[in-house]
Design a protein that fits this description.
Length: about 260
């Protein structure tokens, strides 16, 4: 089910789940024991948990902006089996859009570029683009050459913080990758990407094993959460199938999502 958020400035933001897939639960929560996270994310017989692909669609000043792409269609039969889903269970974003913004270029965030018609530009941070074409053995399998080839044709490099349009701001949020960025709309709705992939990850120790720079994630996440509390931001959690939208509160020294 899609959700629409309307900001105080009147911007309508559609939250679209482009389909769920399965991912290893231990990897998603890193050093945190399963007994602490499984109450939020039950596992299957292979210790996999359900992950959503919640993307944003924003229409502003006559232009359509999409943040992230969903999984897309370009996978082998073995890929689909590993992900625990199939092509007929994912949503492809085939309607034309003017601008695509990617928090980073891992396959589950930009794979849908294979099926999209982007009229104008794909916006990616400069550092992310540099690293996506690198040879880091910890991350190179997360990037697909076919996705990068499509992105490169209409690529616009960003150096956040910067504004994409009136009320759409790119925020540097390094840690998951060096060039990871997030999106803030009207200083009210914040899309953290893989900095805070689910509502459970607002807890500071909940850091993914996928995060290349975990101490940077910790520092960045605390800074963002403090700002979210101060300004009462609404957060959209990209990978959360159960609680895709929430606000942040502080209970003692702990953050939680309401």
């Amino acid at each position: 089910m899609n959700t629409t958020i309307t900001t105080r400035r009147g911007t309508a933001i559609e939250v679209i789940n482009c389909g769920n897939f399965l991912l290893d639960g231990g990897t998603m929560f890193g050093r945190v024991p399963k007994v602490m996270w499984e109450k939020w994310f039950p596992t299957d017989g292979k210790n996999r948990i359900t992950m959503a692909t919640n993307v944003l669609r924003i229409v502003k000043d006559g232009r359509t902006y999409v943040v992230e792409t969903g999984l897309g269609s370009l996978y082998t039969a073995n890929d689909w089996e590993i992900m625990g889903t199939s092509l007929d269970r994912v949503r492809l974003l085939t309607d034309p859009v003017d601008c695509l913004i990617c928090t980073h270029l891992h396959w589950d965030h930009c794979g849908g570029i294979q099926d999209m018609e982007v009229r104008s530009e794909v916006i990616v941070s400069r550092m992310e683009w540099e690293d996506a074409r690198g040879e880091n053995p910890l991350s190179k399998d997360s990037y697909r050459a076919a996705d990068l080839e499509k992105v490169e044709k209409i690529l616009r490099l960003a150096d956040p913080p910067e504004d994409v349009a009136d009320g759409i701001r790119l925020i540097p949020t390094p840690g998951h990758t060096r060039g990871h960025m997030s999106v803030l709309i009207d200083d009210e709705v914040f899309y953290p990407g893989d900095l805070i992939p689910t509502a459970a990850h607002v807890h500071l120790p909940f850091i993914m094993a996928y995060d290349l720079y975990p101490l940077t994630v910790l520092e960045t996440k605390k800074k963002i959460l403090d700002e979210a509390v101060r300004k009462n931001w609404t957060l959209v959690f990209e990978h959360d199938p159960y609680r895709p939208v929430g606000t942040i509160r502080i209970e003692g020294t702990r953050y939680s999502s309401a």
